[in-house]
Amino acid sequence: MTDVTELAGKIAALPHLPLADRARQARDLIDLAKTALSQVGDQATAELAGEVGYKAAAGALGVSEATINKAVTRHRSRSKA
After folding, report:
1. What integer pLDDT is reported at residue 2 of this predicted model?
2. CB neighbours of 51 closer than 8 A, spacing ≥ 6?
3. DSSP labels for the chain?
4. What's the rounded Cα separation, in Å, for the pair 81 and 76?
């Protein structure tokens, strides 16, 4: 897992790179950012569901309980790896 702080540092460094390097690095960071943010969101969702239950978490986030369940399942799968 990429730490979001590490990701933020890489993004902050982009403006200081030569243009070709900046373009290349920005493209490389897109998938990394999606993965890191998905992991953070899934972890927070799992923690919320653990504290208030799936139904309340779904209501708080404006999503279905199935969406909460999927996020919790992804988080648990990553935690085991």
Report:
1. 63
2. none
3. ---HHHHHHHHHHGGGS-HHHHHHHHHHHHHHHHHHHHHHHHHHHHHHHHHH-HHHHHHHHTS-HHHHHHHHHHHHHHHH-
4. 9
Give pLDDT, residue 81. Answer: 65
Quick: pLDDT tens for 22-57.
Answer: 999 999 999 999 999 999 999 999 999 999 999 999
- Is the pLDDT higher at 42 or at 2? 42
Residue type at position 54: Y
CA separation for the pair 80, 12 (Å, rounded): 31
Q: Is 71 exposed, middle or buried (0-12, 13-18, 19+ CB in 10 A)?
A: buried
